[in-house]
Amino acid sequence: MPNDAMITYIHSLNESEAVTLARALIYAEAGRLGLPTTHFSMSGRVQAADQGIDGRSNFALGSGALLPLGILGP
Question: What is the pLDDT of residue 31?
């Protein structure tokens, strides 16, 4: 069950803070599973004309990562 204080905190974040939190969670998830942190990238440019893609991962299928899989871009 979600913690109401945590939900309130997350809702209060501005774009930059939300990106920082998301990046930290991705690093934590990769570390938890022993996955290379070089297998994901995430832009801090949330307003970029990139069709809504703010990050990419290239973790192997079956790695157990709780992240969507995608092709790591340039």
Answer: 85
